[in-house]
Amino acid sequence: MAEDVISSAVSYKVGDQDVSAFLCRPRTPGTHPALVVIQEWWGVDNHIKDVTRRFCNQGYVALAVDLYSHFGNKITADPNEAEKLMANLRHDVAMKYLNEGVNYLKAQEFVKGDRIGVVGFCMGGGYALLMACQNREIKASAPFYGQIVNEEPTEEFPVNPIDLIPRLSCHLLYFHAGQDPWITTEHANRLRDALVKHNKPGQVQSYADADHAFFNDTREVYHEKAAKDAWQKTLAFFQTHLKS
Questions:
Q1: What are phi and psi of 131, to 5 degrees?
Q2: What is the spatial distance between Cα 93 and Cα 158, in angstroms, rounded to a whole number?
Q3: What is the pLDDT of residues 210-234, one digit of tens each?
Q4: Are 153 and 72 spatial neighbours (Cβ–Cβ below 8 Å)?
Q5: Within 13 Å of residue 36, how many CA atoms lie on the same side as its CB?
Q6: What is the number of other CB atoms lying within 10 angstroms of the CB of residue 74?
Q7: 2 pLDDT higher than 70
Q8: CB under 8 Å to 127, separation ≥6 — which residues?
Q9: What is the pLDDT of residues 48-79, one digit of tens each?
Q10: What is the enclosing helix (H) or strand (E) of 114?
């Protein structure tokens, strides 16, 4: 319920850059587990803010970091513009923004600093997977249809996420859409195999009839049944690994 949530725009420094973020915290006194919420390629739009509030209503401090802070906090509904923004986002810059977002949360008196997770969607799902492999402060990660295999590394994005699975340091729940033309079933199976091979605590949940971005209820690809099931599984996952 909205009255149980305190939300505000916040910022923190990464070098000389002011990084913007949308923060929601429960009005209930005391300390709470926290989540970093990572945007789709559209920016920190109303949908991402709504998801951030939804997690907050479940008892989490939730911080949606604006990865486009140095692009003027850009938000777009144009897929061509979104593609350009994502292509121009440097991996090292995004990771600095996100890692410092974790530090920002740890510094808040209302956050349980040892109970921080991450959830991300589309572009943000890829970063949620990377965070799980590169930041040991993260205790649980739920990527939604994020990049698993990067077969054409660029200067902006030189990493191949699947190669980092040996470094996975937290529990992982990855959501895959069976009809996704970008994050294919072959990619999802490679992630499953890598988790088993390296004895990592993770699983891949696939929805055969769902398309990429099935969780976004503002878009035509929204798949209500898959989205509701994924939401309940995500809450149960974070309940186990961040609240218990």
A1: -60, -40
A2: 12
A3: 999 999 999 999 999 999 999 999 9
A4: no
A5: 35
A6: 17
A7: no
A8: 38, 67, 94, 95, 98, 120, 146
A9: 999 999 999 999 999 999 999 999 999 999 99
A10: strand 111-121
